[in-house]
Amino acid sequence: MTDDKEFRDQSVDDLKRKLISQYVYLMSGILLAYSVVFYFIIKDAFFAGCMLAYCVTMFYSFMIIRKSYNIKVLVHLYISYAPLFAGFIMLDFWKFSAATAMWLLPVPLGAHIFLGKKYIYIYTLYILLIIVAVSILTRFFVFDYFILNDVKVMVASDTFVGVSNIAVFGLLLYYNEKIRKAEIEANILTKIGFPEKEENLNISEEEAFTEKDKVAYPNLENTEKYNLLFNEIQDIVEYQGYYKDVGFTISQLSNILKSNNLYISKAIKLNGFSNFSHYLNTCRIENVKKLLQENDISKVTLMYIYTESGFSNQSTFNRVFKQIEGVTPSEYLSNLNIEE
Cα(263)–Cα(260) distance, rounded to whole angstroms? Predict the structure, then answer.
């Protein structure tokens, strides 16, 4: 179990390291391009040099430590000093445009991805303090590193900042989704005790269960684990009402649970159902029977009842009802009226 946990943690860790690597490459390209903008368009060699120095320092430092570093320590360091550098740039731009503050916006998202929820508030407060400090300093002091008389140049600069930050946000959001999924899967698998990877995870339900001699049912310990998984399945399918979705599939269920079709199929079969479709249709028929008992059939249509339960048409409903209950819906209704 410890080895499995370490493997899953390593998987999440690998995603975070990959994000850091791609972020460094993206930001290096952005800073390099922005130094060109400063030098040739804004005509400010000082800030162009600062940008270039920052770009080279960040990229070169990462190349040195990229094979071995503590993720949290590196992230804390970066989102502590990077906003300070952005604040330094903002000092000179603030009197022309507050758009440079956009450089600070990805900081809370980065804190959320790498450090946890509480650091969102800490670093949000941190960047707010930087913005307030810049606003106060520019009110009482003059920072004239360059003279800007062309509004179009400022618009071009703001546009570059906006587009760059969209790219950064896009990268962070993309990996945030992947990292969250990996963490959820690790938590679920830890709880039910399944390994994260298994050969032939894409095996179909039919392939898994048609040849009984190839199926080794779990021992008691594993049966308990599958029962825990079935509890998760029931919560989604029955209690949250996913069986009412006509197009609901086992692949959608596995995606919600962050599990795989084979595990889900085994859990369902071990709980008395022949396959996923049988389980889903049983849930639907049970809801049909419930609605028939709760409603006056003379006041509601049968179509309302079977569509409300997840059947797309009456022929399918009739066929499934007969398979599960052993009688047709009409016969069931007749028996129901006799009992009343």
Answer: 6
Q: Which amino acid is at 111?
A: A
Reported as a single tens digit per residue, the pLDDT across 289-323 is 988 888 877 777 888 888 889 998 888 899 999 99
Determine whether 321 is exposed, middle or buried from the number of CB atoms within 10 Å of its CB (0-12, 13-18, 19+).
buried
Greatest alpha-carbon span in the chain: 93
Long-range contacts, 157-161 (Cβ 8 Å, 24+): 157/37, 157/41, 157/42, 157/93, 157/97, 157/99, 158/97, 158/99, 160/33, 160/34, 160/37, 161/99, 161/100, 161/102, 161/103
Over the stretch 31-40, which tens digit does the pLDDT of each residue have? 999 899 888 8
Distance CA 128, CA 320 (A): 61
Instruction: Tell if the pTM clears 0.70, that is, is over it.
Output: no
Q: Of how many residues is the chain composed?
A: 340
The one-letter amino acid at 106: P
Which of 310, 282, 306, 305 minimizes the C-alpha distance to 294? 305
Q: CA separation (Å) from 56 to 25, 27, 63, 96, 310?
A: 11, 11, 10, 28, 59
CA dihedral 82, 105, 131, 123 (to 10 degrees): -70
d(CA 44, CA 35): 9
* Angstrom distance (rounded) from CA 202 to CA 186: 19
What amino acid occupies position 59?
F
Compute the distance between CA of residue 259 and CA of residue 229 in angstroms, rounded to an integer.
Answer: 9
CA angle (21, 63, 116) in 5-degree steps: 40
Interatomic CA distance for residues 7 and 157, integer angstroms: 45
